[in-house]
Write a structure and sequence with these properties.
The strands form two sheets. Strands 3-2-1-4-5-6-10-7 form an eight-stranded mixed beta sheet, sandwiched between helices. Strands 8-9 form a two-stranded antiparallel sheet. The two termini are 22 Å apart. It has helices at 14-24, 43-56, 80-83, 105-115, 130-138, 168-172, 174-181, 192-195, 202-210, 214-234, 244-251, 298-309; strands at residues 4-10, 29-36, 64-66, 121-125, 146-152, 187-190, 256-261, 263-265, 276-278, 290-296. It is α/β, with parallel strands linked by helices and 312 residues long. Strand 1 (4-10), helix 1 (14-24) and strand 2 form a beta-alpha-beta unit. It is 37% helix and 17% strand.
Amino acid sequence: MPPRKIIIDTDPGQDDAGAIMLAVASPELEVLGLTAVAGNVPLELTARNARLILDICGRGDIPVHAGADAPLKRKLVTAEEVHGKSGIDGVEIYEPPTPLTNGHAVDFIVETLRREEAGSVTLCPLGPLTNIALALEKAPDIVGRIGAIVLMGGGFFEGGNVTPAAEFNIYVDPEAAKIVFASGGPITMMPLDVTHKALTRKDRVARLRAGGGKPASIMADMLDYFERFDEKKYGTDGGPLHDPTVIAYLLKPELFSGRECNVEIETSSELTLGMTVIDWWHVTDRKKNALVIRDIDDEGFFDLFIERLNRL
């Protein structure tokens, strides 16, 4: 069976780095390109970080396109307090030898979906949905060509992590999220409800580091930095490892469970801006537009994550 073709839309972020590493370490996936978006840190840094992570993995051949440097209608909100000033604190920062690929990320997404066989490309958004929304607005015809959109964002039972109601990726650009969820595209959603069950416990980071490979060791260093914020916030051993759940779902969907729901995005309320209003109990007649994942086999997830990163 040929590998599944994916585009990773990303704002690295230590957990984004883990997702990128998991993808390039997995022969079941063919990473057609990375598209950078402003989110955890400004675009200049996310575009560099994406190239840096690929360089660490020896995959400078994968193109990286810079995309939107701001949300559709709002000022950019970033998360240096979580990820550090570089976005991936915990690793030595350097300028990667491979430059950005010419062409805007949105054009790359549109052109790739039009070029490849319909239904053969999966979009994997790990940050704010600005690039994806812009692509859908620019080329509405691509909706029917998307194999799947598997994204990390939102929350329901867990609430939010940047406000009581909103998860960071959706909060940064709620208008973009609204466009994506209203597009009719085939969406699978990894909310905080599932990622908060995937904790980077000390024993798991130690197993990752013990594998001996350079990328895995670097990832362990990044997680040592990254988890400190959530450990203090949640009082847990380790913090949630959000974005790699997207890639793990493509590799082993049996590790996850959820249900088809209607998901609407709040864009006007000052109190609940960016909230993903998930009709989990089907109390409305609104059309189901996303598979919302709620549960994860966290041991199986970390076994997969550690085994694959130790291949690099």
